[in-house]
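User: I'll paste a sequence; please echo it back and then give the predicted structure.

Assistant: Echoing your sequence first, then the prediction.
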Amino acid sequence: MRLRDGAAGEPDRDPVTVIQTVVDAGIRMIDTADAYGNEELVGRAIRSRRDHVMLASKFGLRPRPDTPQGFDVRADPAYVRHACDASLKRLGIGVIDLYYLHHRSDTVPIEETVGAMAELITDGKVRALGLSNVSAEDLHRVQAVHPIAALQERWSLTDRGVEDGPLSAAARHHVAIVAHSPTSHGLLHQEPHDGGATAHPQAILARIARQLRATPGQVALAWVHHREPIHGLRVIPLPGTTRISHARANIAAADLELPEEALQQLDTMHARR
């Protein structure tokens, strides 16, 4: 989300090298959105590796700093087609592997939006459909229009709202969960600031990290990886980073085994916030 060409002068933050480093390490999903303003950069970075990447992008969320939310949503059929064509052009590719509705509209029925998205598959511009920032009821309703491959929602140790409904809907319809912000936008990388009170959620995380010789961020990310066998559906953490060193640390977290005692302690973090 935050990759920008302006960081190319710093070796650890060169955005093209960040992307190519993770692909070389075996990561196959690269996720962006038209609202992020970096589709051209992402397309340039994967061009020589296109056959090794499942590329995802999103549409519908338009930045509007003058509004209370900071954005508005457009998801009518005409805009669906326009947004897809614009993303394909910026990315410099012929087809998007996974195309998300970034945010549901309050004025256009979601079935109408997904119907237009399904036409993109018929046209050969998109391979699979995804949704983000929707409810369990939304997910149920659109199944009659077209199957959804992935649901992208926030999911971390300190943000578990997806477990209240969307998770069971995804399991029912065999939809993969793409868990964005699994380290709470970097918050879970940090040590506690209250002197290290043992009941503080970040203190619990930091203590477990020391025991496992890992970083707090790696433990937080590993916790999301461990959701897959518990909930019985495909879970794909999407940490995101702007640094090569952080990308490598995130990749290593996939192999971090969390003991049952540690998992139980981490599960209490949400209640302690």
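The beta strands are 29-31, 54-59, 61-63, 71-73, 96-101, 126-132, 150-154, 176-180, 235-238. The first strand starts at residue 29 and ends at 31.
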